[in-house]
Amino acid sequence: MIKTIGVLGAGQMGNGIAHVFAQYGYRVFLYDIAEAQLEKAVNTIRQNLERQAKKGAIAESLVGETVGRITATKNMADLAGCDFCV
User: Fold this and answer.
1) Side-chain half-sphere exposure of 35, counting CA atoms within 13 A
2) Which CATH superfamily is 4-85 part of?
3) Residue 8: left (phi > 0), alpha (psi -120 to 50), or beta?
4) What is the pTM assigned to this prediction?
C-alpha cells in the first residue's frame, strides 16, 4: 500500500504534485537541491490551499493539515523510505 510519496523537484510541477498528494492524505517528501526553491514551493502550496479554502472548495482546517504532511528536504536519502517517487 502506498502511504509515502517522494517528489523530486520543487518547481511548478513538483509543488503541484506534492500539493495534490498531501491534500489526499499522503505523507510527502518534497526534494530539491535549492533551499530557496523548497521554501517557495511550500509557500505556494499554502497560498493555493488558502485560496481553495476561501472559495469553500476545502475546509479551512485542511490547509494546516495538508501542509503538515509535506516535508521539504535537500537530502535525497530522505526519499529512501518512500513507497512511490515522482
Assistant:
1) 0
2) NAD(P)-binding Rossmann-like Domain (3.40.50.720)
3) beta
4) 0.93
Ordered per-residue pLDDT tens for the chain, 86 residues: 999 999 999 999 999 999 999 999 999 999 999 999 999 999 999 999 999 999 999 999 999 999 999 999 999 999 999 999 99
